[in-house]
Amino acid sequence: MGIEDASMRNGRALSDQWADSVVVRPRTTEQHITVNERLVLGFAISILTLIVVTAIAITLRISFERITLSVSFERCAAESSGALAANGSSNSKWKQSRDGNISHRDSEDGQQPWRHLRLPATLRPRHYDLRLSVYMENFTFSGEVNIEFECVHSTKFIVLHTDRLLVEKVLVYSDSKKASAMRIQRRFHYQPKQVYVIALHREMKPLRTYKINITFHAHIEHELLGFFRSSYVLNGERRFLAVTQFSPTHARKAFPCFDEPIYKATFRVSLKHESSYQSLSNMPVEASTSDEDGWVTNHFSRTPRMSTYYLAWAVCNFTYREAVTDNGVVVSHILRSYYSRTLF
């Protein structure tokens, strides 16, 4: 018993020592407060960092959008300039229009009407006075068009269709008694939508009539659209002709116009060409004049009110036959089977 009592006492003493060594002592109040302060400080720093990063990101995005918008405008102007240079390089006597160098950053009420698929409904054409000189020796033509139009809604933009035309001069007149031209702020060709834009310094007023005068020149293209050329062989000799095909939206290749079916107007056409050719159009010849240099100018009567794609003319050396319908309408047919189109 003595030995066992001694062993138990020794074991209990060792157990007490082990318990004293592994006992978990509680944290003091000072240590707990220090830990909480560090957590709060870290959380505050994280929130502040997030706010700063967000502000920097927003600033960078706004700057990027401004740079992108500026580059887009400059690219449009560069494309217009490049297109004019490419079209004008084939003929050395033609000069590149200054239109491509003009910026078009301003907008009307935050809009850019020349970027829309359809023409703006602010203007309505009433009459076209079109004069063309056709040069069959090098397949080019020059023209001048006077368009009388009505302002439906206040605007300072005139948006017309043009395609492959080099515009040389533009004048805009109001219907007031003063004959002086209105000031043009800028003008440019916007190729993606095939339109030509004239921006005025002041707005045009509703229910008033205005006139625009545009001089231009272009090539007589070798395709079956717009004002194009073709050829045939007669007695071993190749001959050429120039005719039109404006349907559905190709009148813009021959002259600046409101080239949508909804815009109807009357037309008066004059064609100047060499006397070895003859010309036809929708209406009969009203007057014909001859120049000393062997050129002839045919002035055709005013057409009924119609869309641009109904307008037609031909410069050729074919003969034609005329007939009168029961309603008294004169109908002309070109006798060459290559091009036979009813002209009314």
Q: How is the main sheet built?
A: 7 strands, mixed
Radius of gyration: 40 Å
Helix- and strand-based class? alpha+beta
Q: Provide mean pLDDT, rounded.
A: 80
Organism: Sinocyclocheilus anshuiensis
Pfam families: Peptidase_M1_N
GO molecular function, one term: peptide binding
Domain Aminopeptidase N-like N-terminal: 125-310
Overview in brief:
Residues 96-108 have a biased composition (Basic and acidic residues). With 344 residues, this protein is α+β, with helices and mostly antiparallel strands.
Task: Please tell me about this protein's structure.
By secondary structure, the chain is an alpha+beta fold. The longest helix is centred in the N-terminal third of the chain and has 60 residues, at 29-88. Strand 1 (123-135) and strand 2 form a beta hairpin. It has helices spanning 2-22, 29-88; strands spanning 123-135, 140-151, 155-161, 166-174, 184-190, 195-204, 209-219, 226-234, 237-245, 266-274, 278-281, 285-290, 295-300, 313-316, 320-324, 330-334. Mean pLDDT is 80; it is low at 80-110 and 336-344. The termini are far apart. The chain is elongated, with a radius of gyration of 40 Å. The chain is built from two helices and 16 strands. It has a seven-stranded mixed sheet with strand order 4-7-2-1-10-13-12. Strands 8-9-14-11 form a four-stranded antiparallel sheet, with no helix packed on it. It has a domain at 99-105 and 113-314: tricorn interacting facor f3 domain (Immunoglobulin-like).
